[in-house]
């Protein structure tokens, strides 16, 4: 997802007091995903948890039917639509049948209607559309056969408006360079004589959605009196601010780790949840030292030449688990590329040691990729952890920026091998690094197709200015959306939220799985 800004110099209706508007470019996504997120964002705007929002996107091919839609408005069967790669979606809005696809700019304004005047709202939407079309030298007419815009008697834009508690949703669809052929499969808006057109067809030259989008945004801000909300990366939003437990609550776990000369990823990786977890008497053990052989650009763990393995560490971890009376122990490690097996045998010994002193404790192992070595991965699997966890961390396009000495496909291979051994398999993805919605969906599919069934999604926060920078904050409703998408895809459990980390409340997920 990308944030847009727009230059408003010379626009008379926007002043220093203009209301902020968040601009979210969702890229090319399915209608179902957009509809689901619209509802979530509507509720967030209504509760004033986020600013009024403009969602800008393109849809994958879909025919939508509103409440006025009838079976006779479809000239082919749903199966025939599917055969052409077109979905059919019945939606809770007015109107009848229409088609959406790539090359069409779709905009969903999620706005407080200050004047509570639906007619005025509709006219302002048409003002924006007219100004956008006229920017490219075309003359237009509005509302010839209903809400929308026409050029030379052919419809170029549609409006489907909905309002609940005076916050709008649904919006407009402007045909930019859309393939118009699928409109022949339906009765557009219930009018079989309706001709459809596009800006590209009327201009007689190529034009792209990327060319039209900023023009539309500028006119929208001007007409509605908004200012594009700047992204403040130097200031944590309210949903990332939490009350810390008292020092006494935290001290117990910290002192125990010091007494046993153990490390926790909570401390080494600067986890934002460490105080909460320590106060609850839990932590994630970081084994094989506190120095990593890799230099991942998102991680705060020290990099360099690690010390030799401590053969007594498995027993000390087991003692800590027993003294804390943990129902679930999460064990992770630095990456040890210096070891022939990457530390696989050490993981196995830790599992054995914990089970010898605390047989009722469930164990989750969060492991590195072992450079894809089959024998190392199988050795960890033989230890039979209750949950096998390996984090993908980032989408494919961004992966090497974040993990320059790792490999996206190698991580998928690790997960696939563990799933092939019959283990419960978990992975985690950081959001806020500049990934698009399409890339998130593809990564979730990759994880699912390689056997992952448990998932964590959290906000990336750069540990320092020397690490890969964060691009944007995601609001809680976006994390709720991705949880729903993953569950719909088939994942068995998903922890998704701004402060979620790979091992955050892992016990709850594992106990639910068991």
Can you summarize this structure?
The protein is of the alpha/beta class and 514 residues long.
Describe the secondary-structure layout:
Elements: E1 2-3, E2 19-29, H1 31-46, E3 52-59, E4 62-65, H2 78-83, E5 87-90, E6 97-100, E7 104-110, H3 118-135, E8 141-142, E9 148-151, E10 154-164, E11 167-175, H4 199-203, H5 209-224, E12 226-228, H6 247-259, E13 263-264, H7 265-268, H8 274-279, E14 284-287, E15 291-292, E16 302-303, H9 313-324, E17 328-333, H10 344-357, E18 362-366, H11 374-382, E19 387-389, H12 396-402, H13 408-420, E20 425-431, H14 437-449, E21 454-459, H15 476-489, E22 493-496, H16 506-513
Parallel strand pairs: 2-3, 2-12, 4-5, 14-17, 15-16, 17-18, 18-19, 19-20, 20-21, 21-22
Antiparallel strand pairs: 1-2, 3-7, 4-6, 7-11, 8-9, 9-10, 10-11, 13-14
Helix pairs in contact: 1-15, 3-5, 9-10, 10-11
Distance between the termini: 35 Å
Average pLDDT: 88
Share of helix, binned: 25-40%
Characterize the overall form: elongated
Query: Poorly predicted ranges (pLDDT <50, ≥5 residues)?
Result: 1-16, 266-271, 277-281
Overall structural class, as computed from helix and strand content, comes to alpha/beta
Number of helical segments?
Answer: 16
Largest sheet: 9 strands, mixed
What fraction of residues sit in β-strands?
Answer: 15-25%
Number of strands: 22
Gyration radius (Cα, Å) is 27 Å
List keywords for this structure.
34% helix, 514 residues, nine-stranded mixed β-sheet, 21% strand, 22 strands, alpha/beta, disordered N terminus
Structure in words:
The protein has 514 residues and is an alpha/beta fold. The protein is 34% helix and 21% strand. The protein is built from 16 helices and 22 strands. It has helices at 31-46, 78-83, 118-135, 199-203, 209-224, 247-259, 265-268, 274-279, 313-324, 344-357, 374-382, 396-402, 408-420, 437-449, 476-489, 506-513; strands spanning 2-3, 19-29, 52-59, 62-65, 87-90, 97-100, 104-110, 141-142, 148-151, 154-164, 167-175, 226-228, 263-264, 284-287, 291-292, 302-303, 328-333, 362-366, 387-389, 425-431, 454-459, 493-496. The strands form 4 sheets. Strands 1, 2, 3, 7, 8, 9, 10, 11 and 12 form a 9-stranded mixed beta sheet that branches. Strand 4, helix 2 and strand 5 form a beta-alpha-beta unit. Helix 1 (31-46) packs antiparallel against helix 15. The longest helix is centred in the N-terminal third of the chain and has 18 residues, at 118-135. Residues 1-16, 266-271 and 277-281 have low confidence and may be disordered.
């Amino acid at each position: 997802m990308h944030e847009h800004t727009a230059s408003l110099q010379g626009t008379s209706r926007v002043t220093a007091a203009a209301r902020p508007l968040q601009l979210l470019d969702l890229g090319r996504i399915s209608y179902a995903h957009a509809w689901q997120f619209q509802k979530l964002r509507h509720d967030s705007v209504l509760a004033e948890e986020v600013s009024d929002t403009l969602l800008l996107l393109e849809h994958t091919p879909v025919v939508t039917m509103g409440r006025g839609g009838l079976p006779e408005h479809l000239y082919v069967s749903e199966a025939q639509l599917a055969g052409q790669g077109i979905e059919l979606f019945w939606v809770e809005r007015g109107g009848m049948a229409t088609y959406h696809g790539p090359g069409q700019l779709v905009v969903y304004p999620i706005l407080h209607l200050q004047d509570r005047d639906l007619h005025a709202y509709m006219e302002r939407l048409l003002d924006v559309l007219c100004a956008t079309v006229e920017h490219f030298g075309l003359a237009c007419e509005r509302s010839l056969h209903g809400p929308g815009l026409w050029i030379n008697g052919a419809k170029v834009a549609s409006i489907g408006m909905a309002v609940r508690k005076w916050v709008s949703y649904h919006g407009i669809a402007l045909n930019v360079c859309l393939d118009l052929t699928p409109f022949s499969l339906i009765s557009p808006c219930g009018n079989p004589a309706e001709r459809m057109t596009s800006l590209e067809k009327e201009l007689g030259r190529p034009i792209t959605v990327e060319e039209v989008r900023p023009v539309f945004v500028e006119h929208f801000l001007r007409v509605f009196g908004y200012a594009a909300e700047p992204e403040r990366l130097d200031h944590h939003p309210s949903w990332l601010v939490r009350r810390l437990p008292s020092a006494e609550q935290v001290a117990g776990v910290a002192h125990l780790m010091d007494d046993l000369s153990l490390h926790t990823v909570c401390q080494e990786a600067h986890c934002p949840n460490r105080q909460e977890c320590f106060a609850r008497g839990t932590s994630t053990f970081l084994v094989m030292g506190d120095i990593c052989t890799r230099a991942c650009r998102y991680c705060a763990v020290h990099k360099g030449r690690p010390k030799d393995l401590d053969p007594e560490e498995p027993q000390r971890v087991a003692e800590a688990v027993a003294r804390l009376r943990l129902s679930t122990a999460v064990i992770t490690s630095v990456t040890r590329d210096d070891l022939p097996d990457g530390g696989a045998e050490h993981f196995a010994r830790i599992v054995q040691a914990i089970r010898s002193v605390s047989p009722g404790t469930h164990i989750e192992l969060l492991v590195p990729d072992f450079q894809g070595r089959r024998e190392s991965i199988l050795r960890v699997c033989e230890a039979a952890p209750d949950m096998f966890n390996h984090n993908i961390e980032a989408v494919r396009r961004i992966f090497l920026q974040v993990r320059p000495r790792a490999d996206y496909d190698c991580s998928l291979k690790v997960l696939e091998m563990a799933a092939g051994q019959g283990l419960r398999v978990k992975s985690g993805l950081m959001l806020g690094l500049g990934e698009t919605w399409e890339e998130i969906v593809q990564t979730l599919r990759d994880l699912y197709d390689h056997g992952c069934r448990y998932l964590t999604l959290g906000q990336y926060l750069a540990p320092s200015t020397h690490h890969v920078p964060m691009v944007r904050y995601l609001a809680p409703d976006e994390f709720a959306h991705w949880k729903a998408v993953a569950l719909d895809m088939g994942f068995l459990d998903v922890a998704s939220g701004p402060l979620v980390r790979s091992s955050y409340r892992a016990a709850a997920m594992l106990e639910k799985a068991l």
